[in-house]
Records
---
Amino acid sequence: METGTATKRDRTAPATKQVLGAALDLFTEQGYFNTSIPDIVKVSSVSTGSIYHYFGDKEGIARSLYDSLVERMEAQFSQIEAAHPTAHDRCRAVIALLFELTEQEPAMMRFMLFSRHREFIPDQKPVCSSRPFVQMREMVSAGMQGGEIREMTPIVAASAVFGGALRLIQLRLDGILDAPLPAYLDEIWQCAWRSVAV
């Protein structure tokens, strides 16, 4: 096992899943720095010894949580890529998925998208450099190469396609939007696609 980080196999064990679930709730409700190992022990009902065995310390828990969520999102995006042949359908499906996840698992989305991971995982790359965000940009670039999206700077095109949706997610998590995000899907998608389509 890598020091301080639960392996992918470890993270599927019931005890470690309990710890990661408790940490997700606590980190998003009261913040990473206001959460202690005893807090996580209390909420997860997993012993202090087991937590240190699997994760090393609190940073190890945060790193394992981040890694598990990135892996999960990467797998879901890969499924979307396999199921949809066009950039149009892939990008729309990604936004639909992100909207559904925000409604069903707001803590997960808040931790993934809006936590300042590098404050407590210093060597972690920015979330925008994580594999799921790379996949999103690759979907847009593939659309450009395939003639669905007009030629422009790739990062600008990706921001045009996904930026509005990510902003709506933030507004929903901040309680600004009352209606569930799927109610905005068609409208935000039309705006996004028209901004880049050939």
---
Amino acid sequence: MRNVLIVEDHDDTRLWWENHISEAFPQAQGMGAATLSEAHVLLEKHDFSLALVDINLPDGSGIDLVREMSRTHPDIYCVISTIFDDDTHIFSALRAGAMGYLIKEQPLDRQIQQLKAVLDGEPPLAPGVARRILTHFSRQNEESESTEALTDREKSVLQLIAKGFSRPEVARLLGLTPSTVASYTKVIYQKLNISRRAEAVIEGVRLGLIDPY
């Protein structure tokens, strides 16, 4: 690990990382930037192995910088360091190209240990962030399994039921008889473990079959 870019607008935090980054990577030198502009200047002058990037910066978002570095400096290992631990920020950062995500609330020595995991090929993730990622993909799998449990015809019936169409209207729109629609509805309710139209609306939105807006 050579140079480490530290993009952090809080002076105390930035200086702490500059002075202690060698505890994670003994051969590394920390170089600090308080803004995106300063980070761009350093990126033009130096080669970096890793970038530790805050999200809220005076002249923009650190996530945008990560996205840019992923394109222009793909060899830099980008890690977010922030106070934000919600899904929106976490997944926006990961989609932008961040390979790690640390939460500032954690003790700094623990963050040092999490950064060192990079040397063993492990992504530096705060425990709470790792749990959110696992929960997210677990939820996605459940939704996928629920959707896959429905046939294409059943999904079409559910979409129309969730949108408020009556059984005769659903039958007319799909070219079926009302009794056939009733049979499909019964099967759908059984598969999704629901019993009312209101629950069908909720399931339709959850499964991405209807737009809630």
